[in-house]
């Protein structure tokens, strides 16, 4: 990058990319992959999400990772982000719960209230 | 048909069950029947009422009267006096404040959302391994602006004005530190990031590096520009595998995008970063020991002065800053010092990242404004204490105990300083009534004894003696003069040790004896450990 202009252009592109991606992908699954998350089993949760989503051919769902939110006692933490909907934060996830969340929440749009630790309005 | 006029709610949790809640409940139902009230008054079981260690707890609704330590023998009285005649039984009434510690995690999550995040604004939001996601949230804008539009002196001035103070523990004003090194002509200069987070209970820097490594890199590049350094080092604790991986990837990506390297943003400013992995010595978190280790030598502290700002890495001018300090820099440059000064207290601006652990319901990390009270941190964000609050060790092993009396003290550098406590690294270890203070002290001193590098006598010998005295006390061999001896010894160590390691024992011992002298005396005089933790033989 040679100057400020270029950075700004890249930022616009990056922001568009993220938006575009969320237009293609209607649902974004974000798994907290910090040390406490991983120690609590976030990797298995992430892999389970990827497998479930591939198996069901859900093209409009994207799985990604992030750092810790601060709720270490509730790890592994997973966020389900959708446009124009509040973000649902699930806590203490495991592969079995992932299956349930994919089936009920992602496929049928019904939040699995039992595992919710927080709801975040935009 | 009868109408229910009152409810008797039984708080059912591990504590009340042990105290015999179910038996009392049966008795209650029997007595209500005898009194002919069983249609009118309903007995209901509910979860914990938030009153802990008070035996069987019941609540009469709608009167809003709590009874605690209710036994089978009290039931008749409550039924006859209160429920039949409407005269609450004063003897059993609970009039203390109902402890809101047993809030569900969802309630604390509401509070967690209200945090004011600067350093951790992107952690838990963006993908830390994707540089474009960082750029999309205004990443590297501050660096680009700084190197193309501002002079290094302006940056130093901006940080000075912001009131940012070092987050590694000592709280030295960051802008002032930079201003010692910036005007020096001696080249090369170095910028070193201290990421050797060794303070027990602290993991804030790890979360920054794992959750948002680009923010650290941006902060370092701005700092380097301000002081005139072309080379930066991050000294990361070896156990932090994920931090090392992610920071390494972030550095590589930044190089690929032309953000690190030569002629950054066409400004003529060159800067690159190298990672050095620490080998696990606590003392290497001390800046001069860290520099020795970085040079390939043994991690022993140096005599100060000269300070690293003049004579640092390879005897060149060097600024050493903590991860959290540097991660504050991009936001300050982007939003200006006025924005930053709006947060915090008079002498401590901005936010602080805390790691909370121990006997709390929701351990974890939070970032809140400087000056937030310990009570808010524990009860709002960490979901309250498991059991009754006894004390908190704030600042890690090199910190101090804070008792109940101080729950409402504003947490910042100066307010805590007035009470012989420190903010330190921001670790908050909460203890309930089951923790033994002598045992805690012994563990802390065992740590210091183990980690002392041995270079200076007060620390090398002093910590051993402090440990031995505490060990004696836990084995019922303590002598009365030990408390005074420990204080005198620790105080002389504070005055004569070469670095913070040897100076730290004093605060923790002094605060423990101030709040819990009786408990220590129990161990020494009566040869008992009230908490039944110490061996006592």
What's a quick, concise take on this entry?
With 122 residues, chain A is α+β, with helices and mostly antiparallel strands. Chain A has helices spanning 4-24, 35-39, 42-55, 95-107; strands spanning 27-32, 61-66, 78-82, 87-90, 116-120. In chain A, a hairpin with a 4-residue loop joins β3 (78-82) and β4.
Structure write-up:
The complex is a heterodimer of chains A (122) and B (537). By secondary structure, chain A is of the alpha+beta class. Chain A has a single domain (26-120), classed as Glutaredoxin. Chain A is built from four helices and five strands; from the N terminus they run αβααβββαβ. Chain A has helices at residues 4-24, 35-39, 42-55, 95-107, and strands spanning 27-32, 61-66, 78-82, 87-90, 116-120. A five-stranded mixed β-sheet of chain A has the order 2-1-3-4-5, with helices on both faces. Chain A is globular and about 50 Å long. The mean pLDDT of chain A is 86. Chain B has a five-stranded mixed β-sheet. A four-stranded mixed β-sheet of chain B has the order 2-1-3-4, covered by helices on one side. The model of chain B is unreliable at 99-103 (pLDDT under 50). Chain B contains 21 helices and 13 strands. By secondary structure, chain B is an alpha/beta fold. Chain B has four domains: 6-92, Glutaredoxin; 131-341, 3-Layer(aba) Sandwich (Rossmann fold), CATH 3.40.50; 351-432, Ubiquitin-like (UB roll) (Roll); 437-526, NADH-ubiquinone oxidoreductase 51kDa subunit, iron-sulphur binding domain (de novo design (two linked rop proteins), Up-down Bundle). In chain B, 42% of the residues lie in helices and 13% in strands. The chains are: A alpha+beta (122), B alpha/beta (537). Chains A and B meet through helix 1, strand 2 and strand 5 of A and helix 4, helix 5, helix 6, helix 9 and strand 10 of B. Chain B: Residues 438-483 form the NADH-ubiquinone oxidoreductase 51kDa subunit iron-sulphur binding domain. Chain B: Keywords: 4Fe-4S, Iron, Iron-sulfur, Metal-binding. Chain B: InterPro entries: NADH-UbQ_OxRdtase_51kDa_CS (IPR001949), Nuo51_FMN-bd (IPR011538), Nuo51_FMN-bd_sf (IPR037225), Nuop51_4Fe4S-bd (IPR019575), Nuop51_4Fe4S-bd_sf (IPR037207), Soluble_ligand-bd (IPR019554), Thioredoxin-like_sf (IPR036249).
